[in-house]
Amino acid sequence: DHIYFMTPYLIITDELSRALGLAAKRGVDVRIILPHIPDKRTAFALAKSHYRELLDAGVKIYEYTPGFVHGKAFVADDVIAGVGTVNLDYRSLFLHFECNALFYKGSMTETVKQDFLTTQKACREVKLRDTRRSPLNRLLDQLLRIIAPLM
Predict the structure, then answer these.
(1) Distance between CA atoms of residues 3 and 40, nearest Å
(2) Is the pTM of this model over 0.85?
(3) Mean pLDDT of 15-42
(4) Cβ contacts of residue 80 below 8 Å, gap of 6+?
(5) CB-based burial of residue 115 (10 Å sphere; 0-12 exposed, 13-18 middle, 19+ buried)?
(6) Which residues of 69-99 are buried (b: 16+ CB within 10 A; e: fewer)?
(7) Contact, 112 vs 73, CB < 8 A?
(8) Which of 9, 30, 31, 146 could form a disulfide linkage to 87, CB 3.0–4.6 angstroms apart?
(9) Phi, psi at residue 10, to the nearest 5°?
(10) C-beta of residue 130 within 8 angstroms of C-beta of residue 51
(11) Is the Cβ–Cβ distance between 1 and 28 less than 8 Å?
């Protein structure tokens, strides 16, 4: 039904990007909250390099405008939620020993969802028109994706 992510870094593999896009295409409400003001310019540029393909697939992307959002949480189908140190990036998902609290069918699942929805109200939704990039920037995006696993 739905899956919501809040993460400061969206440095995802092509496989995860494709999975999120396929979920959205089959009707899953996929939303991602990211910071509007980055703490790391390179990581932010890399996150933005995924925007167009995710938006084209139906994923909704929101940027937290009051500043840098450092929350790392997800909620899926009002059944499972997680909060912790895991970013949506290669290093967090595959290399580091991250720690999340996982909640299943409890009141905390609803609490995480409500926190997401409250945070979303302070965000601006990213639209396709926001993803226009010059040829040079598109080239830089592709170069960044090559080194993404190192970030």
Answers:
(1) 26
(2) yes
(3) 94
(4) 102, 103, 104, 105, 109
(5) middle
(6) bebbbbbbeeebbbbeebbbbbebeeeeeee
(7) yes
(8) 9
(9) -120, 80
(10) yes
(11) yes
CB 100 within 8 A of CB 86: yes
Of 77, 78, 72, nearest to 8 by C-alpha is 72
Written as one string, the DSSP assignment of the chain is -EEEEE-S-EE--HHHHHHHHHHHHTT-EEEEEEESS-S-HHHHHHHHTTHHHHHHHT-EEEEETTS-----EEEETTTEEEEES--EEHIIIIIS---EEEEESSHHHHHHHHHHHHHHTTEEE--GGGG---HHHHHHHHHHHHHGGG-
Span of 30-39, 68-77, 79-88 with lowest mean pLDDT: 79-88
Q: Which tokens hold the place of 67?
A: 């500043």
